[in-house]
Amino acid sequence: MATLEIRDLHVSVEAENGPREILRGVDLTVKQGETHAIMGPNGSGKSTLAYSIAGHPKYTVTGGTVTLDGEDVLSMSVDERARAGLFLAMQYPVEVAGVSVSNFLRTAATAVRGEAPKLRLWVKEVKEAMERLQMDPSFAERNVNEGFSGGEKKRHEILQLELLKPKIAVLDETDSGLDVDALRIVSEGVNRVRDTGEIGTLLITHYTRILRYIKPDHVHVFAGGKIVESGGPELADKLEAEGYEAYTGVKETA
Amino acid sequence: MASANNSGSTTAGSIAVREAGAPDELAGPGTGRMVSQPADARQVAVASYDVADFPVPNGREEDWRFTPLDRLRGLHDGTFGNVGEAAVEVEAPAGVVVETVGRDDARVGKAGAPVDRVAAQAYSAFEKATVVTFPKELAPGEPVVVRTRGTGTTGFGHLTVSVEAFAEAVVVLEHTGKAVYADNVEFLVADGARLTVISVQDWEDGSVHLAHQVARLGRDATFKSVAVTLGGDVVRLFPRVVYDAPGGDASLYGVYFADSGQHLEHRLFVDHDVPRCRSLVTYKGALQGAEARTVWIGDVLIRAAAEGTDTYELNRNLLLTDGARADSVPNLEIETGEIAGAGHASATGRFDDEQLFYLQARGIPADEARRLVVRGFFAEVIAQIGLPELQERLMARIEAELEASV
Ligand SMILES: Nc1ncnc2c1ncn2[C@@H]1O[C@H](COP(=O)(O)OP(=O)(O)OP(=O)(O)O)[C@@H](O)[C@H]1O
Ligand SMILES: [Mg+2]
Is A124 in the pocket of ligand 1 (CB under 6 A)? Predict the structure, then answer.
């Protein structure tokens, strides 16, 4: 059973006046089949955690470990991590001019699966996945994320999740910028993947709204660069009612 | 692509607007008329068929200041070595007339006089010209391919492509082999005619090529050119467009890829001196390796008579490694207030790390991610060629160039 283990993770970014520590000792274990929600106010370091797991070059790990089934994730390149079974649905997906979605998806699937998917099966697979996410087929011919609305970008992220079938998925604010319909469609996509029982999900969010669609097994409160409280789904209800004030001293709704 | 400028590049664009109603000087390079008042976008003061009318450039002139004169093998000062014939071979579909003519043929030199010493040198020295004619209303559907193959000597060439009224033509110019070569190419696009030209410069190492390509557009004529410059030590291409009557439409595209030690220069001049014409310029370049050098100059002049002109030019450069240097200078000079649109954009940047991260985060290895991004960068320009087989071949060549650095 795939397990992502994060131990005492410290991460810095290069700020104008030298390195600035953002993550200050994160401990977390996510197993295949589980769903963990990480909830925290703006600027608490949620995206930093997501990017650090994926290996973004902007973030420097200054201490701690991250392993996937015992393998040292931190020594892997970004693409090695993805091929090892990690997936990051980004808060702000990147536009790639001149690269079509269909070419991008096929190249990614080929890399992750270790061989090019059979063309006819692949075309069908993509078409059906897009239909389920109510994405117009014309998206396949558009450039990656170019001119996509916020909601379209998030659907495209979940489309990749469905096609690449990772062991552990980190979803960074997949709910932000979505209207109710889109939130439901995207959540259903995540749930389809979860229902296979073959994925561990780390759902990062600021608001409890998405948790009505995607039920977490564990909820963690993230503040000041680390997990400050962990519990079951009831913790989300508490955050919903009380906000983050108890953790940050600042009134902010969840 | 990150659009920030950085130390490996310069971008110095200018838009100069002269008062409407200021004296109109209908003259300039390629118009066959002398410039009485040189202005920024006019670049040069002389246009002549005779090399003797041009002083030997010393490198301080505006139009030579980016060019490494010491690497031109004497094309600019008459000290060039052995002159031989470059092999020119033309493949043409039925109906197209291909001729080899002498210097005195009336169709040679019609697009206008050379505007710099090397072009005049080529004009003064060539012995046989190739003339390709698309008779009135002919639309062969297949391209004409003109292959110029260097054989290791110095060569001077002349090509005239004449597309008669309402004919539709596609011409591919291929430059390969090893040569020190200077030539003039004329495109005469008559009323209502359409011409697409793809000019591929893929010389062997050690080659030098200086080319002037002038398009003269008739009423409602459409001209599209795609310059693809990949191989050669020094390549300096000078595409120009002049309009004879309203309604002309010119689109100039280009891609170039410079490796260490290459100097690839494109200087464009679009001379709007009749009303209601259009020009669109899109050039993209990539550079890799120390000493890789590219120059792009985009001069667009909208004269007082050219009311209703619509123009836009864009140049983007992708620096793949440190040490490379891209110079990009768009100049737009406007002498009438009555234009439909005018603008330019220029950006030089490095690989966008966020794009690479995104692709890698989906399992795509770094070198393949770079390939995808570079392919994507050039794709819109390459797609303008419209000949799938050639497009694929050129993309593969570009990827091979890229491979050399990864
Ligand atoms: N390059 C940088 N220089 C300085 N500070 C930075 C830099 N990058 C990130 N930070 C800071 O790190 C902190 C954590 O940022 P992060 O994006 O991880 O927060 P987040 O919890 O995801 O916030 P949000 O809810 O807004 O998405 C913020 O205070 C941010 O300003
Ligand atoms: Mg964030």
Answer: no
The 10s digit of each residue's pLDDT in B85-109 is 778 999 999 999 999 999 999 999 9
The total domain count for chain A is: 1
Each residue's pLDDT tens digit, B108-167: 999 999 999 999 999 999 999 999 999 999 999 999 999 999 999 999 999 999 999 999
Determine contact, residues B161/B111, Cβ cutoff 8 Å. Answer: no
Residue B34 CB partners (closer than 8 Å, separation 6+): B27, B45, B46, B47
Pair A107, B372: CB distance under 8 Å: yes
Q: pTM value?
A: 0.83
Q: Which of B190, B198, B295 is nearest to B248 (CA)?
A: B190
B94-109 residues labelled b (16+ CB within 10 A) or e (exposed):
eebeeeeeeeeeeebb
For residue A107, the distance in angstroms to the closest alpha carbon of chain B comes to 7
Phi, psi of B261 (to 5 degrees): 90, -10
Query: Does A39 sit in the ligand 1 pocket, CB within 6 Å?
Result: no
Q: Could you list the residue range(s) of the whole structural domain that residue A168 is in?
A: 3-248
| H helix or E strand, kind and range, residue B179 | strand B168-189
Q: Is position A254 within any domain? A: no
Ligand 1 nearest atom to the CA of residue A173, by list position: 27
DSSP A136-197: -GGGGGSEETTT--HHHHHHHHHHHHHHH--SEEEEESTTTT--HHHHHHHHHHHHHHHHTT
CA distance to B35, B150, B340, per residue, from B26 (Å): 8, 39, 20
Rounded to whole angstroms, the Cα distance separating A135 from B145 reads 44
